[in-house]
Automatic annotation (TrEMBL):
CDD domains associated with the record: TOP4c
GO biological process entries: DNA topological change; DNA-templated DNA replication
Phylogenetic placement of the source organism: Bacteria, Thermotogati, Synergistota, Synergistia, Synergistales
Localization, UniProt: Cytoplasm
Subunit record text: Heterotetramer, composed of two GyrA and two GyrB chains. In the heterotetramer, GyrA contains the active site tyrosine that forms a transient covalent intermediate with DNA, while GyrB binds cofactors and catalyzes ATP hydrolysis.
Source organism per UniProt: Pyramidobacter porci
Protein name (database record): DNA gyrase subunit A
Active-site residues annotated for this sequence: Y123 (o-(5'-phospho-dna)-tyrosine intermediate)
Residues annotated as domain Topo IIA-type catalytic: 35-500
Top-rank EC class of the record's enzyme: isomerase
Length: 873
């Protein structure tokens, strides 16, 4: 770089010049713009705005003046920068949600907590707030240092006298070059108490000071979570304070509402509401039916109306964790001390203010002492003049000029020059006796004041007493209650349902129209077989139950779709209702056009190693359990399906199990699972069972231990059959008869593995549920039809069954995996596509229960609609 000076070119290296210039710029920003002074807590522009308002004479008890007048005064005399920055500064000084104690009283639109800007300066008006006026109290008594303004035409104060500990009570925020400050506001009364404590006990430690000043007090209220961050900030000058908004729960006639009455400091209300609305739409906040802003001049009020199944405590936790209702205030107590940026702890900030106030009061006292002594000197001369009034009059009458009279008084009567001038300026009315008494009283008062001033200057304790008295008066006049609560015990911030609510046994049902609903398992008492069941779902007349699972509120519910995808939601997310139809499944997961949920299951057992998927057309696929780990509401593709096919059953296996496939026409096929090789998520699968016309797979069961198969037809006829009656076959065969099907029974509706001592929950398409003890259901041969287990009414039919293990309940916290047992080693027997093995059953078997016995169909009669006659065994 080169500079041309007086016709000569002087080489100047670029790097040193940039370093020097940037350092000058940085220091200018740090000292002259961005950081507050530790003594009065003001940045230069703030100080100039307040001093400019003082020059305009707009005191707190006088009329407002246009903001443009103030801005012009400040810009023209003290702050040669843009008018927008000056106006923005004045606006902030007047906003009660930004400053704990506003220093400017604004009239008009000065913005809002929503983030709205103030009206143009030509429309708004301003004057001092009473507390702001105290920032300049005694400024005309030589209390502060002065410096030239930008053009050296005027003087401006380098600091304000600041009776108010503004740095602590209002805090400050600013970004400089390479550093920033972020100081929280505090309660005025608490700050004064801490200052008085430090005056009385200069050796007081941080813990003692925090007994008086426990923490920040934000203008918007809220709750500070814990004291650890406060202690760090007060000790080192840096810390992180967690601040929450305040919520209350209001119980209305129709619904419960969560009402936000306070928000964290420096949080924009509009941004907060938008964030809450987004979370509600994305189901990050559950159970909110309506969101509205009812804030007015009386205060802030954001209302969240909850659904009937909404949990107020859960909603509050989610608000804190997922929105700006909980935020972190990073404390950086960076301020200017002797024109140098320094990070201060609490005690250091209090000491800096006290030292400054001692200097202010000392200078003010010295100023007043000088004025009092000067006045005392004048009064003493006037009193002497009254005592020798005749001589004084003679000298004045004999003088030709004022200067001659003054010289005569000085030379003849030994008055000082100031006394002589005061005598000459004295009005004749002062010669009366009453005026003489006033002068003597004034002299006595002046002598007392002079003695007091000398005492203050001579004794540091007396000086501190003056400061203490002024601070105490300030607290009595402007102190108020703390707005921000400090919660010492920090509760868990988890917003998970599991951490908030007890685990309960529930029944979750899925209707064919795609509605999910939840009810408590305890609402369904165990009944005797043949009962009608209890209403478990309030469905539309044309709607039917498509699936049911018994689980707990804390466990996952897996949703398998017709397109081979699987989703996971928590049981508690499904709304609880005793008679409502529930909530559309699309409100929980995102489905493509034409995609439906065809199966719901509880979470997989821990000892599950592989998962078997069976489609209605008899296609089977086995995949490793790891392919289904960490499922979420986002979903995952687990099987490629043929057009028109969908998933019928999902089962867990341990790698050594036998599988039992059941079709709607009463056929059963037992195969070893190793007949189906393990495949990846994108594989189609292999043929598992050969099906007849209009037949389809309704179930796939895992054979383990002492388990048996429960078979229930559409018309409520059911039985239990031992798996030992079925031999192992190869896959892609037709299997054996599992249950005799006819017009009275209807097609086979459900098939499930059961264990002794367990219970089952049967549900009809109309929504009725009945709980039965497994031991009450008759065990019959595979060729029998069974007994009446439930009596569907008015064309209703059995739609689903769920097995209720004792270990499924809350005590174990999850679903039981059946004890794996190796499949019996039997020779594989050839099987006709639709033939049966030889058996000893010559006809149908029914338990002898009144009203439950069915006549056996004639030999060779069709076993069910759309089915060819059975071949003779």
């Amino acid at each position: 770089m080169e500079e041309q000076e007086m016709g000569r070119v002087i080489p100047n290296p670029l790097v040193p010049e940039i370093k020097r210039s940037y350092l000058d710029y940085a220091m200018s920003v740090i000292v002259g713009r961005a950081l507050p002074d530790a003594r009065d807590g003001l940045k230069p522009v703030q100080r100039r705005v307040l001093y400019g308002m003082l020059g305009l004479g707009i005191r707190h008890n006088q009329a407002y003046k246009k903001s443009a007048r103030v801005v012009g005064e400040v810009m023209g005399k003290y702050h040669p920068h843009g008018d927008a920055s000056i106006y923005d500064t004045m606006v902030r000084l007047a906003q009660p949600w930004n400053l704990r104690y506003p220093l400017v009283d604004g009239q008009g639109n000065f913005g809002s907590v929503d983030g709205d800007g103030a009206a143009a300066m030509r429309y708004t008006e301003a004057r001092f707030a009473e507390l702001g006026e105290l920032m300049l109290q005694d400024i005309d008594e030589d209390t502060v240092d002065w410096g030239p303004n930008f053009d050296e035409s005027l003087k401006e104060p380098l600091t304000l006298p600041s009776l108010v500990p503004n740095l602590l009570v209002n805090g400050s925020t600013g970004i400089a070059v390479g550093m920033a400050t972020n100081m929280p506001p505090h309660n005025l009364g608490e700050v004064v108490d801490a200052l008085c404590c430090l005056i009385d006990r200069p050796e007081a430690e941080l813990g003692e000071l925090m007994n008086y000043l426990p923490g920040p007090d934000f203008p918007t209220g809220g709750i500070i979570m814990g004291r650890e961050g406060i202690v760090d900030a007060y000790r080192t000058g840096r810390g992180k304070i967690t601040v929450r908004g305040r919520c209350v729960v209001e119980e209305g006639k129709r619904r419960t509402s969560v009402v936000i009455t306070e928000i964290p400091y420096m949080v924009n209300k509009t941004t907060l509401i938008e964030g809450i609305a987004k979370c509600v739409q994305e189901h990050s906040i559950d159970g909110v039916a309506d969101l509205r802003d009812e804030s007015d001049r009386q205060g802030l009020r954001i209302v969240l109306d909850l659904n009937r199944d909404g949990d107020p405590e859960l909603v509050q936790r989610q608000l804190y964790n997922r929105t700006l209702m909980q935020s972190t205030f990073g404390v950086i107590n960076l301020t200017l001390v002797d024109q140098r940026p320094v990070e201060l702890g609490l005690k250091s900030m209090l000491e800096v203010f006290l030292d400054y106030r001692r200097g202010v009061v000392r200078r003010r006292t010295a100023f007043r002492l000088a004025k009092a002594q000067e006045r005392e000197h004048i009064i003493e001369g006037l009193c002497r003049a009254l005592d020798m009034i005749d001589e004084v009059i003679r000298i004045i009458r004999g003088a030709q000029t004022t200067e001659e009279a003054s010289r005569g008084l000085i030379e003849q009567l030994q008055f000082s020059e100031k006394q002589a001038q005061a005598i000459l300026d004295m009005r004749l009315q002062r010669l009366t006796g009453l005026e003489r008494d006033k002068l003597m009283a004034e002299m006595a008062q002046l002598l007392a004041d002079i003695a007091r001033y000398k005492e203050i200057l001579a004794d540091a304790k007396v000086l501190d007493g003056v400061i203490r008295d002024e601070l105490t008066e300030l607290r009595h006049k402007f102190g108020d209650k703390r707005r921000t609560e400090i919660q010492l015990h920090v509760e868990s911030t988890s917003d998970s349902y599991e951490d908030l609510m007890p685990e309960e046994n529930i029944v979750i049902t899925l209707s064919k129209d795609g509605y999910l609903r939840r009810s408590l398992l305890k609402d369904y008492n165990v009944q005797n077989r043949g009962g009608k069941g209890r209403r478990g779902a309030n469905l539309h007349e044309e709607d039917q139950v498509a699936g049911m699972v018994v689980t707990t509120t804390h466990n996952d519910v897996l949703l398998f779709t017709s397109r081979g995808r699987v989703f996971a939601i928590k049981g508690h997310m499904v709304p609880e209702t005793k008679s409502g139809k529930g909530r559309k499944v699309e409100q929980f997961i995102s489905l493509s056009e034409g995609e439906t949920v065809v199966e719901i299951l509880g979470r997989f057992p821990e000892n599950c190693s592989t998962v078997v998927l069976i489609t209605r057309r008899g296609i089977a696929k086995r995949m490793d359990k790891s392919e289904l780990q960490n499922l979420t509401r986002a979903g995952r593709q687990i099987m490629t399906l043929d057009d028109g096919d969908d998933i019928a059953r999902i089962r867990c296996t341990n790698g050594l199990d036998d599988l039992f496939l059941v079709s709607s026409m009463g056929r059963g096929l037992r195969i070893s699972e190793d007949e189906i090789r393990t495949m990846g998520r994108s594989a189609r699968g292999v043929k598992a069972m050969k099906l007849g016309k209009d037949d389809e797979i309704i179930s796939c069961e895992v054979i383990a231990g002492n388990s048996r198969i429960l078979l229930v037809s559409q018309h409520g006829i059911g039985k239990i059959t031992s798996y030992d009656e079925f031999s192992v076959h190869h896959r892609a065969t037709g299997g054996q008869r599992a249950m005799r099907i006819g017009d009275r029974t209807g097609r086979l509706a459900v098939a499930n593995t059961v264990f002794p001592g367990d219970e089952v929950a049967l549900m009809t398409a109309g929504g009725n549920i009945i709980r039965l003890a497994v031991d009450s259901i008759p065990q019959l041969g595979r060729d029998a039809a069974g007994s009446i287990l439930i009596r569907p009414e008015n064309g209703d039919e059995v739609a689903n069954v769920s097995l209720i293990h004792k270990e499924d309940l809350v005590q174990s916290g999850g679903f039981r995996a059946a004890d794996p047992a190796p499949a019996p080693q039997r020779p594989v027997e050839p099987t006709l596509p639709f033939g049966d093995d030889d058996d000893d059953n010559g006809g149908l078997e029914f338990e002898d229960v009144p009203g439950a016995v069915l006549d056996a169909p004639d030999a060779g009669a069709p076993a069910g609609p759309g089915r060819e006659p059975e071949k003779e065994d």
